[in-house]
């Protein structure tokens, strides 16, 4: 009878396994994210991994890359049209409306961390299932909330050891500004439309901001002389942005002004930002009022210089901005809001590139070697005593060979071995042996924890 060949299974394209030897990076970034979120008053929220597909059609925008070609959508047996969440802001806004958070004290500050899904072309730092930490603040219209979110993200990078992170900033205006902004952009590109790539010729009709996101060389060249958005925003938006820059100087976060920076989601208004690794280039401030032009506090001066691109970036490691119309768009009351998100895969890639050391789990200096059925049964209770005392201990209770257990003790770097055989189990005793010297002593089980603590202090 012919034997059926078993398929060699592999992880789906665009995903990755987080192996045990890499988990100390993940633990470090997650713990730092939670620490900063809690300290700055953000409360933890978790939303479902899938949502109604219309949440993203309405919230993110039908003419965005996410909705057009990146969402994982499916129909359930019950007929519901659902989508694996491609981003975190729209689900949080939905939860804010649905759960009556409008009645809480404002701003409502929330943080989340988890998996998100986009059908993108996999490449370095970009996956189809990726992990983000996000901060959202709903109900605050002043620029102080953007400054606080930017500060928290900057502190996160600094405190996990990433050298030289900075933020690019721009204002893309509000509803009142958009007609003037659109007129200027359309006017510039109308006579140059043939020079645009095929995608941008379509984009400019559906979502004119998206042409500033294009990476095609000819579109990048055209963008260099395109109208700067900040020149055409209303006075209110200019004042908002000017005040934000004053906050940036005060909190000393290095930044650069990118007058063509936009975000790929329709809900953004006014402030948009992206974090990169490196030194800020032209139109920059080091956060102390020192830069190419000195203090950058006056928004009207943004139009005086053409943006000189910073050193080429492989990818942004965080991004965000203000989204004042999203809650209303999803059926809630008009609610000003702002947020930002950090991509953990990209951060960990940078940490590895910069050879940043992060603490591993506390290693066990004690290894329990057991032999015999009675000793094996009693070993479970001994291990639990160590857990209760807060002392790490390793044991391989499935092993019966003393030699193999001693070999494992050496591999994990144990300093002391507890030898617990049939005789010791009957006598209610155990042997403590020092691995390096071989010196050992026999003690009563009732004094085990006390004796181990004494040995560890030597």
Major β-sheet annotation:
9 strands, mixed
Task: Report the β-strand fraction as a percent range.
Answer: 15-25%
The Cα radius of gyration reads: 29 Å
Q: Give the count of helical stretches.
A: 15
Structural class: alpha+beta
Please report the distance between the alpha carbons of the first and last residues: 66 Å
How many strand segments?
17
Shape: elongated
How are the strands of the largest sheet arranged? 1-5-6-12-11-9-7-8-10
Mean pLDDT: 87
Q: What's the helix and strand layout?
A:
Elements: H1 23-39, E1 43-44, E2 50-52, H2 53-59, H3 65-70, E3 73-75, E4 81-84, H4 89-98, E5 108-117, E6 129-138, H5 144-159, E7 165-171, H6 175-190, H7 198-206, H8 217-223, H9 235-251, E8 255-257, E9 269-277, E10 284-285, E11 318-322, H10 326-329, E12 337-343, H11 344-353, E13 366-370, H12 373-389, E14 393-395, H13 402-411, E15 416-420, H14 422-427, E16 429-434, E17 440-444, H15 448-457
Helix pairs in contact: 1-5, 5-9
